[in-house]
Amino acid sequence: MREIKRKVAEAVEYIHSLRSFSPQVGLILGSGLGQVAEEIEDRLMIPYQDIPHMPVSTVRGHAGHLVMGDWGGKQVACFQGRFHYYEGYSMAEVTFPVRLLAALGANVLVVTNAAGGMNPSLNPGDLMLITDHINFMGTNPLIGPNDAELGPRFPSMTSAYDRDLATLVCSVASEMGIELKHGVYIGVSGPSFETPAELKAFSLWGADAVGMSTVPEVIVASHADLKVLAISVITNIARGEAHEAHHGQVLDVAGKVGPSLARLLEKTCARI
Ligand code: HPA
User: Fold this and answer.
1) What is the CATH number of the domain that holds 204?
2) To test the ligand 1 pocket, which listed residue (122, 127, 200, 250) has its Cβ within 8 A of the most ligand atoms?
3) 28-86: per-residue pLDDT in tens?
4) In this structure, which residue's CA is closest to atom 2 in ligand 1?
5) CA 120 – CA 30 distance, rounded (Å)
6) Which of 36-50, 93-107, 155-169, 192-206 has the lowest mean pLDDT?
7) Ligand 1 centroid vs 145 CA: distance in angstroms?
8) Phi, psi at residue 110, to the nearest 5°?
9) Is 14 a catalytic residue?
10) How far is the CA of 245 from the centre of ligand 1 (A)?
11) 193-218 pLDDT per residue, tens
């Protein structure tokens, strides 16, 4: 953890050498949702490879820029493209953006992702507010010695998804006529998609949607005392044998829903 603090401090120093900036809100955008960053005004785009200690993303559809600027009247820092555990990154690398946002001074983290809808009420193109999660990634980003300056040894996860932000985004969505479903997200490591037996088990546990990200970021955000707002784009159904996920479809559906999700998040940001 001492190592993380040093790396994050060097990354912050580099970012501040480009622009003195203190974002209120941090965003981590998932597959096909990169266009949200294009709406940020007065923006500074920093390629990931220029930021000290920042991993570089390898997946198609993940552009790999930190975009900083004004959005919804707020100063934001937006990670366009995330790091997945299945790509071979360590949990420290997967969650490096969250540590960086916390060190830059953000107190809200907005996360989007693509997910498969297990609950029969979820269909491709739906937006789902994540109300809670199940960590089935087989690991935890906080394993190892704890640095009390970064957060507590045993952080509570009972309010990992902030209720006030959830209430806010629900009212903004209803004012805009955007249907926002809600549910529990189960995070798996991937990269193989789920078997029918796994999907059945996850549904019985109370999960509504399944994906391969977000859970590590939210755990570290809780540790760092950031308030989290998380939304899944349901890109495919994931029920029993009817699991039609493939990466092209995930990007396609996420790309189509992206613009309305961008407007929803912008209006929400303005009222945080
Ligand atoms: N399973 C796991 N991850 C996913 C899926 C899925 O069906 N869709 C998008 N990400």
Assistant:
1) 3.40.50.1580
2) 250
3) 988 766 677 778 899 999 999 999 999 876 655 555 889 999 998 899 999 988 899 99
4) 211
5) 23
6) 36-50
7) 32
8) -105, 125
9) no
10) 6
11) 999 999 999 999 999 999 999 999 99
Say how far apart CA 220 and CA 43 lie, in whole Å. 26
DSSP 30: -
Range of the domain at 186: 2-270
Rounded CA-CA distance 210/200 in Å is 12
- Annotated catalytic, 57? no
CA distance 230 to 216: 13
The single-letter code of the amino acid at 26 is: G
The Cα-based distances of 68 to 19, 94, 144 in angstroms read: 9, 20, 31
Set 48, 57, 77, 84: catalytic member:
84
Residue from 9, 45, 87, 157 carrying the catalytic annotation: 87
**pLDDT at position 57:** 63
Is residue 52 helix, strand or coil?
Answer: coil
For residue 154, count CB atoms less than 10 angstroms from its CB and return exposed for 0-12, middle for 13-18, buried for 19 or more. Answer: exposed
Strand, coil or helix: what is 247?
Answer: helix
Residue closest via CA to ligand 1's atom 9 equals 115
What's the number of domains the chain is made of? 1
Annotated active-site residue 31? The verdict is: yes
Give the distance (Å) from ligand 1 centre to CA of residue 207.
Answer: 13
Contact 70, 44 (CB under 8 A): no
